[in-house]
Amino acid sequence: MALAACGGGSGLGSSASCFDATGESTACVSGQPDGSILVNDFEYRFEPNTITAKAGKVVLYEVNKGSTIHSIEIVDESGKQIQDAEDIRAGDTFVVERTLKPGTYGLICDIPGHKDAGMTGQLIVS
Questions:
Q1: How many alpha carbons lie under 13 Å from residue 33 in its C-beta half-sphere?
Q2: C-alpha–C-alpha distance, residues 46 and 119, integer Å
Q3: CB atoms inside a 10 Å sphere around CB 64
């Protein structure tokens, strides 16, 4: 299941808790859902490009800080798509929500040429 979110205010109270790429609690950015991990898109990389999360519900808050369309797709170790990517325009955001078992997953941008240009990452679920 994936939910789209574009622009707008955060609607988050001061008790909101988000996570960095290592799983440590951090302040949420504007609009970021409570409990999510921030992933920024640039040409042609994810930042951070290695993310750790606990098994179960994993929520990535994708922010396209690039100047072109990007996406984030989760794939298993064999390259099989687990999470369908949503193309998001520059400046927009998207929430990727998926229940994952422990393992190592790939993150790719499925816009033609972006993966080959190095827009890949790793999601380690424990």
A1: 19
A2: 6
A3: 22
Distance in angstroms (rounded) separating the CA atoms of residues 19 and 35: 6
Q: Where are the domains of the chain?
A: 2-125
Please give the CATH number for the structural domain made up of 2-125: 2.60.40.420
List, as one string, the DSSP characters of 2-52: EEEE-SS-----TT--EE-TTS-EEPPPTTPPTT-EEEEEETTEEESSEEE
9 Cα distance to chain centroid: 19
Confidence of residue 20 (pLDDT cuts 50, 70, 90): confident
Q: What is the pLDDT of residues 26-59, one digit of tens each?
A: 777 778 998 899 999 999 999 999 999 999 999 9
